[in-house]
Amino acid sequence: MTARQHHFLSQCYLRGFTNNGSKNSKLTVIDLSQKKHFETTPRNVGGARDFNRIDIEGVDQNILEKSLADFESDAAISLKAVTEGASFAGKEKDTILTLIGLLAIRSPQMRENMRQIEAEIVERIMSISLATKERWQSQIEQVRKNGGTLSDNITYEDMVKFHKEKPYTIEVAREHHIQVEMKMLQPVVSLLMMRDWSLIRANTDSGAIITTDRPVLLDYHEPDKVPPFFRNSPGFGLKNTFIYFPIAKNVSLLGNFSDKSRTLQAGQKLIATLNARMAYSANKQIYAPNLDFPLIGREGKIVSGKVLL
After folding, report:
1. In a domain, 265, yes or no
2. So what's the pLDDT on residue 2?
3. What whole-number distance in Å separates Cα of residue 294 and Cα of residue 292?
4. What pLDDT score does 36 carry?
5. Which of 102, 216, 254, 275 stands the most exposed, by the fewest C-beta atoms within 10 Å?
6. What whole-number distance in Å separates Cα of residue 291 and Cα of residue 28?
7. Residue at 141 is within a domain
8. What was the pLDDT predicted at 24?
9. pLDDT digits (tens, 9 = 90+) for 163-212
10. Are 306 and 292 in contact (CB under 8 A)?
């Protein structure tokens, strides 16, 4: 039987934020949209029905899901190696940066953002086409010249009303999303390779590192100096940006264009600061071993993750 629940957040990745890292170990999920928390295994979160399914004649529907499963087997090895003390170099670096690229560009939220952009383009084209009756009729004639068939029962006035009232939604085919994502992957990974990556390892008493359903945090170093219009859309290749990525509950990555890579032993304040940035950038859910992870709260005080509830 073909599995229909596909993960956009790899189970091997989320396993690093569970209590003991085993296959059936549980993590604590804080659902910000519902203001509740619960415990579950990684297989029950970070998924969407048919997310990787390809419905094209002559193509195996599960070809992408199978390919990603093979890659995630390698990713699991690299994640575990770095978590247990290996340096961030060689195969581990290449594999984890590819995983970061996949997680950065593939999610239901990213697809919805793309759908909204393409829907807006279609709406604008329709507005231009319906600007005058003459323009609409000329386009109808062009469609018919090219062999298209159109009903004579629909008038220009009907179309204007339909467009204004909008009793419809504009959808984008899942296969189109997948095609765009795969084209984006290599350029994004190439830009990730250009950064200098520092490992941040948590001390035994600093508390757990958390992750979210938006695990790749790309932001400006000084957002207040960026014009508001561009503030929410930094690029992977911009020099004045950083990328923060939690690898597991005790180690994370920080990527800069700085000509310097190092390993940092992080105390509770740094972990609390990074956790706060992650928590506030989440789409809907936060993942951690328990609710006692540190956060920077008001006036710079360190508080428990329980405050998010």
Report:
1. yes
2. 67
3. 6
4. 93
5. 254
6. 7
7. no
8. 86
9. 999 999 999 999 999 999 999 999 999 999 999 999 999 998 999 999 99
10. yes
Which residues of the chain are modeled with pLDDT < 50? none
Give the helix ranges, DSSP H, for the chain.
Answer: 11-14, 63-83, 90-105, 108-129, 133-145, 156-165, 174-193, 268-281
Please name every residue paired with 248 in a beta bridge, in sequence order, or none if there are none: 251
By CB neighbour count within 10 A (0-12 exposed, 13-18 middle, 19+ buried), where does 9 fall? buried
What pLDDT score was predicted for residue 31? 95
237 occurs within a structural domain: yes
Contacts for 118 with CB less than 8 Å, ≥ 6 apart: 170, 172
pTM of the predicted structure, to 2 decimals: 0.91
Measure Cα distances from 107 to 12, 173, 181, 268 in Å.
16, 15, 10, 30
Q: How many angstroms separate the CA atoms of 271 and 248, rounded?
A: 12
Residue 201 pairs with which residues in a beta bridge?
251, 265
What are the structure tokens assigned to 74, written together? Answer: 């390698």
Q: How many domains are contained in the chain?
A: 1
Give the number of other Cβ atoms within 10 Å of residue 119's Cβ: 14
Q: What is the crossing angle of helices 90-105 and 174-193, to 10°?
A: 140
Distance from C-alpha of 297 to C-alpha of 6, rounded to nearest angstrom = 35
State residue 260's pLDDT score: 84
Q: Are strands 302-304 and 294-296 parallel, antiparallel or unpaired?
A: antiparallel
Buried b (16+ CB within 10 A) or exposed e, 50-61: ebbbbeeeeeee
Domain that holds residue 214: 5-102+195-308
Q: How many Cα atoms sit within 13 Å of 23 on the Cβ side?
A: 0
